[in-house]
Automatic annotation (TrEMBL):
<dbReference type="GO" id="GO:0003824">
    <property type="term" value="F:catalytic activity"/>
</dbReference>
<dbReference type="InterPro" id="IPR000073">
    <property type="entry name" value="AB_hydrolase_1"/>
</dbReference>
<dbReference type="Pfam" id="PF12697">
    <property type="entry name" value="Abhydrolase_6"/>
</dbReference>
<feature type="domain" description="AB hydrolase-1">
    <location>
        <begin position="26"/>
        <end position="246"/>
    </location>
</feature>
<dbReference type="InterPro" id="IPR050228">
    <property type="entry name" value="Carboxylesterase_BioH"/>
</dbReference>
<protein>
    <recommendedName>
        <fullName>AB hydrolase-1 domain-containing protein</fullName>
    </recommendedName>
</protein>
<dbReference type="InterPro" id="IPR029058">
    <property type="entry name" value="AB_hydrolase_fold"/>
</dbReference>
Amino acid sequence: MKQAEFDGRGSMIRWTETPGFEPARVYVHGLGSASTVYHAHIAARPEMAGRRTLFVDLPGHGISDRPADYGYTLEDHADALSAALDEAGVSGAEIVAHSMGGAVAIVLAHRRPGLVSRLVLSEANLDPYPPVKAGSSGIASYEEADYVDNGGHARVLDKIGPTWAATMRLADPRALHRTAVNLARGTTPTMRRLLEGMTADRVYLQGELSGEVEGRRDLEAAGVRVVTVPGAGHNVMFDNPDAFAAEVVGVP
């Protein structure tokens, strides 16, 4: 396990990694998740062999610290991720990021383009205030005090599925709430506009069961490879690992 300070007050973002050739491949989880749980089975596949690989847990999640006085904005998470990559000596990385982690990866690539050569985004949040879907946690609908101190966190854990709950119960409730609220607020310009304006290689994976990607034509016109993954829902890496892995390694 390795770590880097991210807030100037001793709080640490942590990751595990395996050695290999560059450019490094960096996995970033979604809200209430953890990178190894969602991506280790992908990185262990034979076609992934030999690449340096990092599994980073964002602040408030997994094995990383969860300071109570931290903002947990998308920019905060991106800066923490950049601190980890700087400490690891990583540049020009391939970032493989899921959901909220995809939004963080977009912000990272915008703020620190030298750190990122390629983005593989799995159902990343692109717009602020997305419509509530069946798989939504509903965290952002709570006031912080109600979520943290008055049973909101427990109600959300009861509501979501067992896979998500297994990692969300390990995350800090305050960090979760602030992250969810800031994810709903998004960025200015939006994550979608930031993604469309980049020159790095970009792949956007959408599970077939999640419906069509909003603004697909504009994304493709901007050079984003948009892929609908058959038989998959939001957790593409679990639902169709073969297709997910093929896109990560760049096999059409």
